[in-house]
Amino acid sequence: MKVGVFTSVYNDRGIDEVLDKLAGFGVEALELGTGNTAADKHVGLDELLADPAKAAALRRKIEERGMVISALSQHGNPVHPDPDLAAHDHEIWTKTLQLAELLEVEVVNAFSGCPGGGPEDRTPNWVTCTWPDDFARTLRWQWEEVLIPYWSEQLTAMRAHGVKVAIEPHPGFTVYNTESMLRLRDATGPEVGCNYDPSHFFWQGMDPFTTIKALGSAIHHVHAKDTFLDAGNVARNGVLDTKGYDRLSERSWYFRTIGFGQGEDVWRDIVSALRLVGYDWVVSIEHEDGLLSKDEGLSKAVDLLRRLRPSEPVGRMWWT
């Protein structure tokens, strides 16, 4: 199990500086943004597709520092009800698949997307309850007429490029929890899997050990990000919170560096559960902590993961 970092945390710095810094932290893998909400600051998607030699040079830079690319990330909404926005995000997705094949990267991270409430809408509609009946009808339409057809159509391209998608369950999108993730996978194919980010599960009340066991082989990639729940604010307002992330003291929850939200024991359980289901790829740190600097947050997260991760295969059990 390798310790990785999503490089978007250093979007204000050049790629060479980022590579040197992360290698110095002891990072072993990089997750690179290629566009949409995962801003393309370190890759140059169009430039690398136009010149495969430059793509090879980027991969060499990374490998020379003892690191690999865990995934390319292009978190967008390819089923957005505004056709122009949907077309833009779909184009980035398509180009990212091409670049993944060029770089020999097997995983592209994504969101499921969220359609509108019906064919005439121009803004997404995230349904969180089944009544009044309008919501139940909306949800059926979103799944049956938009989401499942879109991702089913993407299987051909994924297979052609030898790439899997890791969809990050995220509130605000149609796939946001364990059940919706498995529903989309069952309706499409095994290439459609999960980018498991427990930070979005914590505040919804889901247990990481339970969700990891349920997802099992559907987990294609993992984010390491924590969430702190402010018990007083939750008791007063619940967990649905639309206040800005600049108002941390008022929010019911906010993101933290791993170990600073749910505690080290929870992260020990997460690493153990991942091993239990056979996940042995990269755990990629995503720094979105408003209380720790980038450097401090990343260094603490790397140190914790390096301590907790298994460093060698299990082998034969003592009783065999």
UniProtKB/TrEMBL annotation:
GO terms for molecular function: isomerase activity. InterPro entries: IolE/XylAMocC-like, Xyl_isomerase-like_sf, Xyl_isomerase-like_TIM-brl. Keywords: Isomerase. The keyword Metal-binding does not apply. Residues 20-307 form the Xylose isomerase-like TIM barrel domain. Coiled coil: none annotated. It comes from the Bacteria. SUPFAM superfamilies: Xylose isomerase-like (SSF51658). This is Sugar phosphate isomerase/epimerase. It comes from Conexibacter stalactiti. The lineage of its organism: Bacteria, Bacillati, Actinomycetota, Thermoleophilia, Solirubrobacterales.
